[in-house]
Amino acid sequence: MNGIKILLLLALTTTINNSFGQKNIDALLLKLNDILANENIPGAMISIVNSDSIIFAGGIGYADIEKQEQVTGDHLFRLGSISKSFTALGIVKLATENKVKLSTTIDEIDHTLGIKNSWKKEAPISIEQILEHTAGFDDVHNHARYPDENIETLTCSAMVNAHRKSLYARWKPGVRKAYSNPGYVLAGYLMEGISKRPYDQYLKDEILNPLGMKDSGFYFKSQPEMLMAQGYKREGGEFLPIAFKSVQGGPASDFCSNAKEMSLFLRYMMSGKIPETADALSPVWLNRIENPETTLAAKNGCIGGYGLGNMSIWTNNHLFHGHDGGIDGFSSMYLYSREADFGLAVSINTQGRIWNLIDEILNFYLGVNTYHNTATKPVPNETKSKFEGFYNFKSPRNQTMHFAQKMMTGHTIAFEGDLLMVKDFGGVIRDTLYHKGNNQFYRKSEGVPFVMLLENENKQPVLWLGNEYAEKGNKTIRVAKNYLLFASIIMSIQYFFVGFFWWVLQFFKKVKKSKTSRLVLWISSACLMLTIIAFLLTTELYERPETINLGSITVFLGSIAFFISSVLSVVKSFKLSEKNKIFKWYYRWTAFSLFVLALWLLSNDFIGFRLWAY
Predict the structure, then answer these.
(1) What are the boundaries of each domain within the chain?
(2) What is the pLDDT of residue 151?
(3) Which terminus of the chain, N or C, has less C-beta within 10 A?
(4) pTM
(5) Is 116 exposed, middle or buried (0-12, 13-18, 19+ CB in 10 A)?
(6) What is the DSSP letter of 206?
(7) Structure confidence by residue, pLDDT tens digits, 386-411
(8) Edge-to-edge strands of the sheet including 255-257?
(9) Class of the CATH domain delimited by 77-253+279-307
């Protein structure tokens, strides 16, 4: 009987027994088709539901351009990071059955993993921290992104080993949030240890099949026997098909589903009990999924953010929950709101601006966001004096290049009365925020606060901006460092050209003098230029920059040669035989500039950087 109910539910695509269903779906589809044409999107799968019916579950555009195959409600799309919602749901199910606690630590499940955590005694990494991205893990390193051609599906254990360089605590777990795909690979591995089944089989048996999601699954490779949409990239004015590549993500990114089955998932998340074959989720567990508990902000009373594979967003006058996903050739998102009694899932088979489609659907059914609340509570003067100032972001998603990115990032906050003004690094006001109370702030177009002022365990002021963690710092020192680095870069690069033309002139002179010191300085400048150019070209042009190739070898050897020659340049600068004092000082400043950059790169592990091992 339950199987018949699921089949009937899957067969439904449009209902007219509610206010949403009474709207003309054809009018919406015409608008969505126009967006596909304007945005150069091949096709899209679309699910629109409320708690007791499926409004639409189908598609528009092409699933396969060459075959002129239209998207239907049965076409499987790669949903990327939406996988995390299902992985988290699997662990929640284990917790509801008392097979594990969310507070259970890694070592309690498998003490042999050896995950590095300098705060292990006081703050061991727990399952809920992994699911909320608060374990401190780094994101994917290039070498683990695309494996060589694999005949068989990788095991979770193999994927954990592939991501070893990302799986370490960069700061004390349970404080900051930093998105980490490898963390969810580890979550899948831990799920296997608890359930005694492969993660994909466990999720199929305990989550997908009971929900009626018979075709959905975690697919390492394309399934030719199934109806799968082709992913595309746009290049040179045309669509080029993208092969089904595994990113070694498994529980973090390999999930595939279609419009009909995502409709079932949306209704389940909205009600916690549909269909009847699935175990009901109590309001307590739904609330736990949707609200984090392990961040510093959550511990201080801030609701919303990134929960267990589930993020919060305010749009169209309501608080929504969901997740987005991006993977080669596909962009996806699902959103639902019990308050609005509305849910949707959209996936397109190219990487593009999916929000245009989402906005059109939300505006069509819910109207544009008209929420306007400027009520603000008084902010104590001691709070203003304590928190006003400049803040450095301290929770980078990718650690390796953060040393360069942080140069021009950071926010300054100031109060105008009881309004909190948030300025970017350049001093431009980006947000005007209103005080709700308890040091929580919100935009006038939002009904919930996503910003909070608080202190960490060292009593240092912290700005919690959405999901970003920033500590109060000194902008003057940051700017001074930037000027020093920028001046060093300019001095170093300009000598490459000055030295080059000097050597050209020397070539035409009849009397040539040995200028070893100038040569060493020019080589140092040339090696810096070569390293930077090789790094940029390798990471941009090579499909797999993490392999041993001409570019990656050049970065490795060039950076080492740069450091050695910069040290020699400084030594040479004190032994110059030049009589021209102006040139002596120019040489010394240039040598000093190169040495500053060399020390900066060395302190950030870029000297001898091996792209093939990253």
Answers:
(1) 77-253+279-307, 381-473, 484-613
(2) 59
(3) N
(4) 0.91
(5) exposed
(6) I
(7) 999 999 999 999 998 888 888 889 99
(8) 77-78, 255-257, 217-218
(9) alpha beta
